[in-house]
Design brief:
heterotrimer; A alpha/beta; B alpha/beta; C alpha/beta; A: alpha/beta; seven-stranded mixed sheet; four-stranded antiparallel sheet; 31% helix; globular; B: alpha/beta; Rossmann fold; three-stranded antiparallel sheet
Chain lengths: 238, 311, 273
Amino acid sequence: MLLTVHNLSKHFEMHHLNRQILAFEDVSFTLDSGQFMVIGGSNGAGKSTLMRCIYRTYRATGGVAWFESRFGRVDLTRLADVDVALLRDYEMGFVTQFLRPRPRVSALELVAEPLIALGEYQDAAESAARAILDEFGLKEALWQAYPATFSGGEQQKVNLARALIRPVKLLLLDEPTASLDSAARQSLVDRLAALKSQGVALIGVFHHANDVEHLADQHLRLDRVQVYQNGATHAVVE
Amino acid sequence: MTLASLVKPQDTYSYGFLDGHAKRELRRRILKAIAIPGYQVPYASRELPIARGWGTGGLQVTLTLVTPQDTVKVIDQGADDSVNAANLRRFIARMSGAHTTTDTHAATLIQSRHRIPEEQLTEGQTLILQVPDPEPLRYIDADMARARQMHADTDYSPIWLVLYEQLVRYRRYVQGASYPSMVHHRYVMSPSPIPRWDTPKLHQAAHLTILSAGREKRLYAVPPYTDVHPLEFSDVPFEVENQDGWMCFRTGARQQFMNELPQADGSTRYELSDTGYAEKLLTHPQAPSDTYYTEGRFYHDGFLKPPRRLA
Amino acid sequence: MTASSSHPAVSLDAPRLIESQPLVVLSNVTKRYGRITAVDDVSLSVYPGEVLGIVGESGSGKSTVMRLLNLEETAESGEYQFDAPDLSGNNLFTLDRYARRKIGVHHIGIVYQNPHLGLRMNTTSSGNVAERLLMTGERGFDALRDAARASLAASEFPLARMDDLPRKLSGGMQQRVQLAKAIALKPRLLLLDEPTTGLDVSIQATVLDTLKRLQRTTHITTVLVSHDLGVIRTLANRVIVMRYGRVVESGLTDQVLEDPQDAYTQQLVFSKL
């Protein structure tokens, strides 16, 4: 089992408000290589927060998340920061909803960067970047342009390409298709299918849930603080 | 009342004008300077009947070393007959009873401002150079404490940086005199404002050189047979002044250090800077002395490398 | 690395997956100036190839930490370990001035916020860079020129202006010269002390870019001090937050900026974003 999450909880401690805000509580699931889990639920229910807790952008406040890394079995919630950074380089990927463009950095360079950071040669990284931008349908004329001026959909294509250019074991996707046209959405779905068949585990929140329905192996539904999994209901005490 | 009546009679002065304590101080400092080649030794510089800036440092060393058996030569920019040189020579002679001369070979002590004689000095001779500013780092960092730290660490990178900047800006070293030189591979010294022509003469010399600054109260020394290397990049050699084609109008000599004398009509005449040597050439042309440069070649073969023109 | 958050969500394990030893370790370092404790029992580790950001307001001690890392000063207590062949096991604070200077020249490069601190304003830009090599005994003029060119090019400084005086350069260009000087000897550790603060916003972006590109291609271990969270987010992998001389929180950059645990960090992050 690649990922085993047990009683994962997250509340935010807002010191200046003297308040605790509960995001989700006691979430448990398992995910194996090549499996696709779709997280659903109403807005603000903590779907994105859950994924960020696994990726360690957020610190979970309770529970465990066991991950079979190449270095052995580790609890992502307690793993040292430098170790998480290592896993993010080689084993975990996170696809966000929005691109963070940087001034004067071209789309091609943004996409090639993660490979170069791992030690890939410049020209090899750039040709991989070109291939994946082409796959997602970004016009070649835009490859050398600065993404800050792109449309939302074009920016997201760059974002996807950058996030997917490196091979990973576990991929988390947070509303990756929200701004895409249907052709681009299809390209993404095709790629996710390919990744799945290569053994990549996928967890995602999708605006257009139907797109990936045929790939989903599991559903996790978060509805405020009630958690439903695979149809069963677990009532949770607030 | 006359000035003469106010002045003490001559025989009440100490021998060599300086009293015993002063001479002891100087002797000890000179010995220390010889023991640490190129290291600036501070000393308690005495008041003398000439003002600071007129050779008091050199004079103190000469007065300390002189004995009645010595023969003293004093030059200023190479000339024995300059007013200052004549003045100093007369004072030294009167205070010590030593002989004086203009002949470099005959002298045992040579006090000089800003030149080293053209004729090779030998073992047993002592050259005393007058130094205005002993600190080669002065124009880089005026802070004396930091300069002392740099000398202690042998960290002379700021001096090298100055030379680098000269090469970048002017395509050659432009330091004309006081060329910073590394003594015994340890300390960088300013060899006093002698021209570049004279700086190589200090390397592996048979004679002892003492450099003394009266106002700055420091003295340093280059013992005989000590390595002295003007700072140069490994790929851009140090060069002496190019005086090709210059001829002394009095003696007809070439390829020795010349003074330039602009004439009223706009032309230039040249004359040998070393007047003692010039007199010898005029009076005894058949008996040439050994000079450091012969036909443009320096007597230490290989010390001056072929020049490189930077693009 | 130590988890020094005062309100740990879950306490962190010690690092064990990462194979390399930390390049730099400060252990329980305290630095006082008279009665003022500028750095109070601070511990941090910097791993090879990473960028560690230090965030804090003025008076937080971040500049003092930089000065200690740069061996400009020593600390009253605590240790500074540096992973280099000639140094292993030594507490750098106990070395003499000469040894510290040597380490500073060979192993550490620094870019100051104020270019006047890091550059000789009346020496050519290439000369500023060449000085680093002169300090290690390089005596070949051509070699100095080549090295200066290479460093300035890596800092994306226009070579046509390599002999201009920094006095005559814009702020962004001056920072590039500082950077070229800092990396001239390919040091193991690069210290950036508010490198883009005070520059025009558009120039900040290009200098940040250069820093990011440099980091990406050379993997030079970097400690970056900044009060600007945008700069931290762009460059740093991990960040520590300092206040009144202490470390109040540390973690991955995105985690500290998006899910700050400590009250002070929350205040810092939420007021600035």
